[in-house]
Model the fold of this input.
Amino acid sequence: MGPTAEEIIRDADLSNKTCLITGANSGIGLELTKCLNANGCKVLMACRNTYEASVVAKNCCEKHENINLYELNLASLASVKKCSEKILQNEKKLDIVILNAATFGLPWTLTEDGLETTFQVNYLAQFFFIITLEKILAPEARVVFTSAESHRNIKWPIETMLSPTLNDISLPEKEYTSIKAYNVSKLCGVLAMHYLGYRWLNSNISVFCAHPGSFIKTRLSRNWWVFETLYTSMIPFAKNAKQGASTIMYCATSPELTGLSTLYFKNCRRSSESVMARDSYLSFKIQDLTRDVIRDKVPGYDYSIVKPDTQGDMEKETMEDTLASNYST
Ligand SMILES: NC(=O)c1ccc[n+]([C@@H]2O[C@H](COP(=O)([O-])OP(=O)(O)OC[C@H]3O[C@@H](n4cnc5c(N)ncnc54)[C@H](OP(=O)(O)O)[C@@H]3O)[C@@H](O)[C@H]2O)c1
Done:
């Protein structure tokens, strides 16, 4: 079943590093939190129930005084904005960001922002979160999306590939199944990695996607007894949460990946994402939709790229500037 996250991180000294993790209070996120904390990393747990997270941190983490808790409800873009404002106020830099939270198996519901919940929680809100925190990413920061192999199960016809609409990613009730919504959200995550790789092309920030393993028995299956039964029956054949956290830990910390970016991993090895997930045109089309939704739902939000200049002040750059500087001779 492969190594555990603890084995991957064994020799690492992370004492000057800060790692932000979404969904850090449960399953794979909690395993990551425990291992990073044990190796001296300051961990920022971004969770929707900070009381529960504080109890878990006290019970599971040896150096829990080196953990900061932030309230984050991904089903609310206002909560995401508030959480990132607090982080920007309190923290100087982020060396590692692990976008790990997810929901699965819900009946069709809309968030307070009017978007399908799985899509917003698993993709859109976490994408918005990382964009709002971009200005404090360390020069060689690593951003890791917890991905899923099931992103491969989404196959859109050519018309959708050329012109996806919001209804293709934030599913309306009549087209909804919880599995489809989850797979679409994970596909959007891999496409977002490609967009961010491009957005950060002129920096040393790396972005990776990591598939933890399939049918890992965590609280992910809690929303429907059928999934609970399936995941429980798969325990003998699946990784546990400690093993499931290893590929994410590898992407977040391994020196072997220094200087690399925009790669998909499983079993701590380079793998290839689906053909659709590495389609640059689709990545930018989904990005256009994402930007329009965020501008619509979070009025006044400035989507420009913010990068630290050599003096330590912030410089703003539009996507058009980036394109121009990369393609001018
Ligand atoms: N388990 C698997 O077999 C498997 C397979 C492939 C990929 N993955 C991925 O691995 C990652 C971790 O999942 P897991 O298996 O460890 O499941 P988990 O134990 O259910 O953890 C999911 C985390 O996401 C958080 N979350 C859910 N909705 C949220 C919201 N609205 N706002 C903020 N946080 C929210 C949960 O917080 P609460 O505790 O407050 O609900 C929890 O901390 C996910 O991205 C999942 O898609 C898992």
Summary: The chain has one domain: 5-299.
